[in-house]
Design goal:
Blueprint lengths: L1 H10 L3 E8 L2 E8 L8 H6 L4 E6 L1 H4 L4 E2 L10 E2 L5 E4 L8 E6 L5 E7 L4 E8 L4 E4 L2
Length: 136
């Protein structure tokens, strides 16, 4: 996410991560705004907003690590509103949202993007206190 935000600022164009559910798992791809109106799903599908990095599953890069939530956890693995896109703008702002990462050992992490600043926070869910704690 930090890399995508840097690319958006450096290229002076909106760049988005697309999270798409498929029967084989959740795919993540990177797309650029091709016409100056932001990255949009229908424009990705039409080719107007081109793919910069082909779809990949997080588990393919990091075996045993998933964008997912364990059965005991309430909530969705990808919470970015009704969209499947997490966008970063040339001014450094972003879509607000949270991704839930399930570790190999069952630990639950949250990656939260703060829209106005575009900053990214990493949190760990502490089951002992039933709450999120900042990781770094």
């Amino acid at each position: 996410m930090a890399l995508v935000r840097t690319q958006a600022v450096t290229r002076s164009t909106t760049i988005a991560l697309r999270f798409r559910r498929t029967p084989g798992g959740l795919l993540v791809s990177v797309h650029a705004d091709g016409n100056g109106n932001g990255v949009r799903t229908r424009e990705i599908e039409s080719g107007t907003d081109p793919v910069l990095e082909s779809p990949v599953r997080l588990e393919d890069l990091f075996p045993g690590v998933l964008i997912a939530v364990p059965p005991w956890f309430e909530g969705s693995a990808v919470e970015i509103g009704s969209s499947e896109l997490l966008s970063f703008t040339p001014s450094g702002t972003a879509t607000s949202g949270t991704l839930s990462i399930l570790g190999r050992d069952g630990s639950q992490f949250g990656v939260r993007v703060l829209g106005v600043t575009g900053r990214i926070r990493m949190m760990t869910f502490d089951r002992r206190v039933n709450d999120w704690v900042d990781s770094f």
